[in-house]
Write a structure and sequence with these properties.
The chain is of the alpha/beta class. It has 17 helices and 20 strands. The N terminus is likely disordered. It is an enzyme of class 1 (oxidoreductase).
Length: about 450
């Protein structure tokens, strides 16, 4: 085909970003090959089934926060089925002073909640009238303290950050870690006023596809990966590329995995892999990208065939750092997704570690299991702790932290791509960390490549 003669793309990484890019290239008739270091596609997404439980190693669910997610699932509807969460997913619990407290969902509960101090509740009334910030690299903690107060930081934003980044709001730059929140203040002058005004703005039919619903895939997120691979073609994915690297030749690229030449290379790997992947890049300059911090996280999947603790009618419970517990929080997966546990049972994902407790990942399985037993027994009022499922997953590079190096990182990425036409540095080193962000970036990268071949 004519397009194939113009462009041939190497995609490094068969995670969600790489597979989404490949899917849309395949639809457009662009030639490509995907290189994956592991022995299977999917990256951190992997669904397991054991002893009556269906659980994930990696992300447990996504949010329909972008129309691109709905569009991809429409394209794949013959091979995987969207599952939106039960109403229970709308409730969130926050741990405060030895009990779970529901996160407020409206004005009345916001006034009565014990999570926030009375002065901060009064302070919130003035939030729409405070002037917007003028520091583009302001941390999320600084922003919240300035507009809302310390109790909101401690008991709303901090646990929220632990649940998303396993991070520290004092070390995350708002405009990179939460660009929509940053734009609310910059464009509308207020979180509250901006949210009200945005809700009233007309939405296109495409915009309405972003329902903000929590979602998974029937049978587990692994079925999304299977559907992508089926439509891409297994023959286009090369696995076990543990030592892959790329060089430049004749205005193109070649890998050490064969004699194919490529016009473009798309990296979807972590920043820590870039130096060995692209030895032709200047190390000193690349350091602006590779120095970014990652959280170290332990995920424990727990399954109980008979749950005898607190009723789990919520999305999950988050534990503010100020409470000094040894877990970050837990998701109550069987409460809002189908067929995760036997009838009357429960499936939970418990998280430990993060940027403020990175040493937990180095504990033994026995020590981690003991921490989980002690914490959950007390926090969920369990008389006995005898799970039928207990699986421990460790992630040394779990989630990139969009910190104070982010501006320099983004400028360096743009400069490197300009100096080396055809090179695309993508993946969760930029543009967001969620499932929706990864799908959106994959489709955007594919569209740019397709347009470059016209």
């Amino acid at each position: 085909m004519e397009k194939e003669a113009k462009i041939k793309v190497a995609i490094v990484g068969a995670g969600l970003t790489g597979l989404t890019t490949a899917f849309y290239l395949r639809k457009a008739g662009i030639d490509f090959r995907v290189f994956e270091k592991a022995g299977r596609p999917g990256g951190v997404i992997q669904t397991h089934r054991e002893n009556g439980f269906t659980f994930e190693a990696g992300p447990n669910s996504g949010v329909l926060s972008r129309p691109e997610v709905a569009e991809l699932l429409e394209d794949l509807k013959d091979d995987c089925t969207l599952e939106t969460a039960d109403e229970a997913a709308k409730a969130r619990w926050i741990w405060k002073k030895n009990r779970w407290v529901p996160l407020p969902s409206g004005l009345a509960s916001g006034i009565s909640t014990p999570l926030f101090s009375f002065p901060d509740k009064l302070r919130l009334l003035g939030e729409p009238f405070r002037k917007k910030g003028d520091n583009p690299d302001e941390s999320l903690a600084q922003l919240v303290l300035r507009r809302m107060g310390k109790s909101f930081l401690d008991y709303a934003i901090d646990p929220f950050i632990l649940g998303i980044y396993s991070g520290d709001p004092a070390r995350l730059v708002t405009r990179y870690a939460f660009p929509k929140l940053y734009r609310l203040e910059q464009d509308y002058g207020s979180f509250i006023g901006g949210s009200v005004k945005k809700a009233k703005e007309p939405k296109t039919d495409r915009d309405k596809k972003a329902t903000k619903a929590i979602f998974s895939i029937e049978g587990g997120l692994g079925n999304l990966i299977h559907a992508l691979v089926k439509n891409i073609g297994e023959e286009k994915i090369q696995l076990n590329c543990n030592t892959i690297s790329f060089g430049k030749k004749d205005n193109g690229f070649f890998s050490n995995q064969g004699d194919e030449a490529f016009t473009h290379v798309v990296s979807t790997t972590g920043s820590y892999a870039l130096e060995s992947l692209f030895p032709f890049l200047e190390k000193e300059k690349l350091h602006a990208v590779t120095k970014m911090e990652y959280s170290r996280v332990v995920q424990v999947s727990l399954g109980f065939k008979k749950w005898e603790g607190n009723e789990l009618r919520a999305f999950g419970g988050l534990v503010p750092f100020i409470e000094q517990r040894r877990i970050l929080g837990a998701l109550f997966l069987s409460s809002f997704l189908k067929n995760k546990a036997p009838e009357g049972g429960a499936l939970l994902s418990v998280f430990l570690g993060g940027v403020r407790r990175p040493e937990i990942i180095d504990l033994s399985d026995e020590e981690i299991a003991h921490i989980v037993e002690e914490e959950l027994t007390e926090m969920f009022q369990l008389n006995t702790f005898k799970p039928e499922l207990l699986k421990i997953f460790r992630y040394s590079h779990a989630i990139p932290q969009y910190g104070f190096e982010s501006h320099e990182k983004m400028e360096t990425i743009a400069q490197l791509e300009s100096e080396h036409p055809g090179l695309v540095l993508a993946g969760n080193i930029r543009d967001g960390i969620g499932i929706a962000d990864r799908i959106n970036q994959g489709k955007t990268v594919a569209s740019q490549l397709i347009n470059s071949g016209k």
